[in-house]
Hints:
alpha+beta, 3-stranded antiparallel β-sheet, disordered C terminus
Amino acid sequence: METKGTKLRWSVDQDGTWLSILVEAGQAARKYAEANKDKPQRIKITRWTEKRSLSANSYAWLLLGKLSEKLGIPPEEIYWRLIPDVGGNYTAVRVPLSGLDMLRRTWGNNGIGWRVKVLGASGPGMVDVLMYYGSSVYDTAQMARLIDLIIAECKEQDIEYLPPEKLAAMLEEWDARKNKGSGDQP
């Protein structure tokens, strides 16, 4: 269950063993807790960030399509080449070499941009890898960096793209939608 609150209110007991959180969707949280009370649970509290807008995603793929046509290579290959340059979009892990193919297949099932890059051997039968997340889970800043990378490629190929002021307007529109009525975000 994922919920975005306008205000997060919480308290911890003196020993730090009990955490009490006030949630906006109280009935849904109670229903979930009651239905799952006999099952182990993991709760992660993180700062809320907005995911990228669909219009930004559409624009990115429009430009990737233009690059693909000009360069004669699939848009996915251009996208895969740019994903590592976004930054902050991977997890580093050590895995057995025997499980590398399975990891690539299962991680790749998450979407087009979900890739595994082998860094190198890290001991007998082990490899260090970077597991890249695709843009489907990027926040606004990451999506803006990806679009900037795509635009840089378009400039090199003399491919038309939105002027900076129109791109800025698209990002401002996204920020306005993101912040509409949200008050203090946790």
